[in-house]
Amino acid sequence: MSVTNNATHLELRSQFEDFLRHERYGYDKRIETALALVSSHDHNDALSKTKNVRRRPALTLSFQLADLQSHSPSLSSSLFLHPLSHIRALDAAAHEIASESSPGYSSKSGSRIRVRIASALDYLSPRGLASHTLRTLVSVEGVVTKCSTVHPKLSESVHFCPATGRRDRRDHRDAADPNLGLTELDDRGVEVPDRYVTGTQGGYPSADAQGNPLETEYGLSRYKDYQRLTVQEMPERAPVGQLPRSVDVLAFDDLVDGCKPGDRVRIVGVHRPLASIAGVTSSGVFPTVVLGNSMQTLGRDAAGAVANYTVEDLRDIKAMGKRSNILDILGQSAAPSIYGHEVIKKAIVLQLLGGCERDLENGTHLRGDINILMVGDPSTAKSQLLRTAMKVAPLSISTTGRGSSGVGLTAAVTMDVETRERRLEAGAMVLADRGMVCIDEFDKMSEEDRVAIHEVMEQQTVTIAKAGIHASLNARCSVLAAANPVYGQYDKRRRPQENIGLPDSLLSRFDLLFIVLDQLEPEHDRRIAGHVLKGHRYRRPGTGVAPERPGGTAHEDDDEDTIRGKRKSMWDARSTEILTQDFLKKYIHYARTRIRPVLTEEARECIAMNYTDMRARMDERTLPITARSLETVIRLSTAHAKSRLGRSVEVEDVEAAMEILSFALYHENKTESKEETAAVSLPKTQDPPQDLSDQGPFKTKEQSDQGTNKRPRPNSPLPTQQVVQERILQALSQSPNAELDLNAVLMEFDIATKRKAAQNLGGDVHLQDDMLYQI
């Protein structure tokens, strides 16, 4: 069956009718089913007009373009190139079949059947729409950012003249009419030569040709629902450094109210220009829109290519889930270029995995997303950790405290420039639904803007009641924020609330709050220097002079473990392997979307016992422990069970969650009690001792431990802070009145070194005017 571009309307209708009646596809049966649903609704509505408030079912037929491709490739290709005339013929063919199936169908007002195309085309983003796609069938994917209100649009008006007693009908078409520019049809469906469908001229009629006034019969006129949407390019698909592009979509009839701001949609329609807007015809540049034909809401957890698992990927994922140290491997793989921060890296991995959200029968929503706040000294890799989380997360949006406002994070009510009507525009947290929002410089936000995100962080919704618009939008996202202390540097002598400068109502909404300090220790600084220099000098085997990018893809000449998703770590000598970024994304996506652990009875008892202990340890030096902390333990335990692909939350998951929570609350780390949170930037260090010059600028851990037990020589550089603290505590314990004058003891050390070491002692030791008191 061949189709030419100049096929008449009757020929196209006949070909589409043969396709719809083909017994292989059964579209004629689907038309009968759609008619039966509408007829049943109308019958019930006639029996009880005051009780039935349900929306009338849409009289539509959804067909797959792949079926038409297999039936007639030439007809399918012609539909793609000339969609307007073919969709009109397709609707006419479906209308003919519906008229035969239901005798009373054609006499019903406003019940003409519409065909919706479920496209098998290559999906485009708004950035891919250009001049070559005009007047062709396109399939656009993006995020809905704006939605106008639904308006009834006049399609046919009926006018009554009291003077003559006549009624006249008049069709109304504008530049958005899909039949605009096509050949006119007579009552039999035959094309009228040299006559084309044009827009309505002369405006709305108020008098007839003789000047007699006309009255509009609103009850006899016909209308269609109309809504204008703005679809923006998905944030993760936009090129780096470029603004995401958007396109307007015109929705009619059953497509209206099919989505809301923040939804990810796939829209099939015709890309065409609008040439009737005043003020743009002189330059030859016309605005373009997509006339929507069908709309599909995409799943929020879809991560594009990340969700495409191969058999080898599934085998490797299940094998990695059986590893006892899987969380350590995931944490090291998340940010291999950042030294230290092992606990924070694990917490970010648990945040990416997330807990299990629950909707109780009474309507209560329990969030499963984990919120993390990092507060600490400058140059401690807080911003780099945010960037790392953004790269690993399937959906993430980044913003800063100064570069965003409260309405920019939640939602705003704006006014359309063309229609002058108010419309709802989604903010960053609504667009990041089922994803992650990274907020840097969180402390720079104003108080009014921070209050706006209180509801989002706990209820995970955005409620708008402005300018006559009342709406509630979903914002089910996790928040990863970084902030600097109030005084620039973190002051250990003050309470955490005084250093952070945020209200308790906001701090309690963060599940984990990490205090990141810049420790001035020569041994620690040497390790940082060695780690940073490794990243600059490493060369992947078989490559040129370019260093390997952190988290880069595997090289074709790498060993078998690298190809399977693992590679030797060049960053940390203590680790044996890290995962590639691609495999890490697949593992996290698999564990997040396919694993839903359930709490066991032993885990419940362990969580209750740990929560009671935390409440007992709470004092003014720690953050407040509330009922939200109990839910934090549940979320962290569930996320840890996901990391090992477990179907139930065991006691070991609760213990692992409590280790991370104890580190955040009390700075206690059971696995590495002597390791402090590290800084990535290279601080100013002293020259290495002369007795270690043969071993290079970097010492091993064993050499460092041996050196701490030796008394420093007069000509050696400043000792480590740990040695000075041990000497101070020893002298304080020998003092009879529990007081110690730093100027009178340990004369081999200068006063600045002793004062710095005494300030970091903490606990029950207090320093004032170089006098140390044991409380």
UniProtKB/TrEMBL annotation:
The keyword Hydrolase applies. Residues 326-532 form the MCM C-terminal AAA(+) ATPase domain. It is an enzyme of class 3 (hydrolase). Residues 539-563, 672-721 are annotated as: Disordered. GO terms for biological process: DNA strand elongation involved in DNA replication; double-strand break repair via break-induced replication; mitotic DNA replication initiation. One of its GO terms (molecular function) is hydrolase activity. The keyword Ubl conjugation does not apply. Pfam families: MCM (PF00493), MCM_lid (PF17855), MCM_OB (PF17207). It is found in: Nucleus. It catalyses: ATP + H2O = ADP + phosphate + H(+). Keywords: ATP-binding, DNA replication, DNA-binding, Helicase, Hydrolase, Nucleotide-binding, Nucleus. Its EC number is 3.6.4.12. Gene3D superfamilies: 2.20.28.10, mini-chromosome maintenance (MCM) complex, chain A, domain 1 (3.30.1640.10), Nucleic acid-binding proteins (2.40.50.140), P-loop containing nucleotide triphosphate hydrolases (3.40.50.300). GO terms for cellular component: MCM complex; nucleus. Acts as component of the MCM2-7 complex (MCM complex) which is the replicative helicase essential for 'once per cell cycle' DNA replication initiation and elongation in eukaryotic cells. The active ATPase sites in the MCM2-7 ring are formed through the interaction surfaces of two neighboring subunits such that a critical structure of a conserved arginine finger motif is provided in trans relative to the ATP-binding site of the Walker A box of the adjacent subunit. The six ATPase active sites, however, are likely to contribute differentially to the complex helicase activity. Belongs to the MCM family. Component of the MCM2-7 complex. This is DNA replication licensing factor MCM3. It comes from Corethron hystrix.
